[in-house]
Amino acid sequence: MRLLCTILLLTALGRYVVAAVPAPTSPPFARWTTTELVLSNGLVQRTIKLPASDGRFLTTQYKPVDGEFNYFIKTNPDFQFELNGKPYTGSGDWKLVAVQKITDAKQGDGAAVTLQSKDGTVELTVNFLLYPNLPVIRKSLTVKNLDNEPVRLESVDVEKFIVTPYKATTFSWICHDYGRRRSIGPYDGNMQDALLTVHNSDWQQGIVIGNEAAGVVKHTSVFWNEPAILSGLTHKEARFPFRKYIGKGESFTTPQVFTIVYNNHKDPDEILNTAVPDFVRKHLGTRLSELDQKPTFVYNTWVPFRQNIDEKLVMELAKAAADAGMKEFVIDDGWADNYGDWVIDRKKFPNGLKPVFDYIKSLGMKPGMWVSVGSASPDSKVYKAHPEWFVLDEQQQPTNLHEDAANMRTACFGTGWRGYIKDVLLKLALDYGLEYLKLDFTVVTSTYRFGNKVTGCYATNHKGHNDHHESLYTNYEEVWALFDELHAAKPNLFIDCTFETMGGLQLIDYAMLKHAEGNWLSNFNGPDAKVDLRVRNMAWWRSPAIPATALVIGNPEMQDTGWDMHIKSLAGALPIMLGDPRKLSAADLKKYRAYADWLQLMENKHQIMSYRQDLAGFGEPMEGMWDGFQRINTDAKSGGMVGVFRHGAVEKTRQVIINYLEPKRTYQIKTTTGKVVATLTGEALQTTGFPVTLTAPYSGELFEVTDTLLTTNTK
């Protein structure tokens, strides 16, 4: 008999913490014989035929433990890849070498199956991990070269599922672009498909595919060249092909792919709001989850000042930002005398940056700084001393991957550059006590260039890659290694890896999230309501597949008319403001601080920065509609925050439903000023909700949702 015991403790900070959580089953989640491997955690089961008489490695069943699942045939080839152009799949001829238990640091438990190919060229280990309470199976491949010469690994599909005929391919929705865009028919994915869902509304079944490969070398396709679902790395004929050379006796482990199969769900977004964020938050290993304190209100100098900053301006901005309640203060571009050397511009900062950062800290804010992580000016000392560290184009000439301009060179991370820039960044972080690094500009591919020629590195003498195609993958991996080394020296450092560094417009993915905390996703400028819509729209597009606090959405300005709507809209992501706080009146600064303190209170009480879900009945933010979000603590169920917005809609009143609360507990709904607007049980909030009236056609409100027990204990 399994004991179900969940204990909620109220801490001195007013936080609920979960002291014990029940699990359907306990590890081990894998059992095997010489002919069969069964993976099950009580929620999901996958059965694999091990090589025996016919040498095949096949997934024969993959389904939720309870109920039917109609998607897959019983002879799935499981994986495929090419070595020196020769294809290998689970349907090939393999010899079983060993099966052993494996675990990871995030409660993962499963098995690793080691196989040897009949031709004696490759030893393959297929790694499976399952997690408590979630219908997730995570998988990777480890390819070991048994040949006497290096081999070329390409076209890697970590997962390959063949679907059942007709109904799967004809009636499935392909929910791509972070699970938000729906289409039918064959789909060949791209860099934006960190996650997609295949859903059949007739069956009320589907599969979520999360691809943990980096940037432009991730690939997931659905029914593209065959009735199959493939997920792994880009194929050799792709625009940005993956390639890895594996030396004699050496091994390469692919990025992981996680999958979730489900049934009895009418809408695929149900999984996006439950199992997916739970897995990402608890088990994926995101850096954001490791932070003791998550940022709640950030200021950045980029707009409107650009590079026109100096000591006097920054100190004035810091004072005003602190008065407004900002918690982090980031100095953007313009503080250095060139790219590459990262030496302080003494004309702008005659006393250096230390007194500036000391002043920022004295105001109660955490300091941050912008640096281009892979760029140098042609006249910089580092470029002149080490031209061999920089990217070469097809003509073997130094180039600027970021944009078509001769004033900058792009460094190759497959050289000594990584060690150099690591020392630069560590010195900055440690000398100035930085808590936030915004690391920017192109390192693999550019957001602003087109085609696939001005990408990666074509150098033939760089240690980190053998050719251009291999550089696309290895440069990402070297950037991740750099981030890990920075975190080892400063564990609570918030690294903002911008979409420009990621290599695609507004691109963010799971690979980045395991090594950096956030991603500067946009540069939305303008004072009117369209900016607020774009902020909420971007946050909706990327969440809940991606943690909302990782979404750094610029550039709303503090002094804009209607600035309070900027704050309310940004509260669904990472609240970050730019602009000139010196232009605000004393009354406005007081209002800003009230919002800032309220956001911090919501984090202290409910840890809102770890959660975000869709608001039931409210869809994609768009003109003429209502939209909203909720950031409810689904572990402690103590409550959280709700944002509701009217964007030109005819209706002045909407009923608001809140999901994922404890049905029997009683909750209060409060405005940001503390006024109670409703007191309802979790069940009533989920079934009938409460009305919100917004008289202005372009307006919005934030509300706290809090357990009355928590309210009583914190009075």
From TrEMBL:
<keyword id="KW-0378">Hydrolase</keyword>
<feature type="signal peptide">
    <location>
        <begin position="1"/>
        <end position="19"/>
    </location>
</feature>
<dbReference type="Pfam" id="PF02065">
    <property type="entry name" value="Melibiase"/>
</dbReference>
<dbReference type="GO" id="GO:0016052">
    <property type="term" value="P:carbohydrate catabolic process"/>
</dbReference>
<dbReference type="InterPro" id="IPR050985">
    <property type="entry name" value="Alpha-glycosidase_related"/>
</dbReference>
<dbReference type="InterPro" id="IPR013785">
    <property type="entry name" value="Aldolase_TIM"/>
</dbReference>
<keyword id="KW-0732">Signal</keyword>
<protein>
    <recommendedName>
        <fullName>Alpha-galactosidase</fullName>
        <ecNumber>3.2.1.22</ecNumber>
    </recommendedName>
</protein>
<keyword id="KW-0326">Glycosidase</keyword>
<dbReference type="InterPro" id="IPR002252">
    <property type="entry name" value="Glyco_hydro_36"/>
</dbReference>
<dbReference type="GO" id="GO:0004557">
    <property type="term" value="F:alpha-galactosidase activity"/>
</dbReference>
<comment type="similarity">
    <text>Belongs to the glycosyl hydrolase.</text>
</comment>
<dbReference type="InterPro" id="IPR017853">
    <property type="entry name" value="GH"/>
</dbReference>
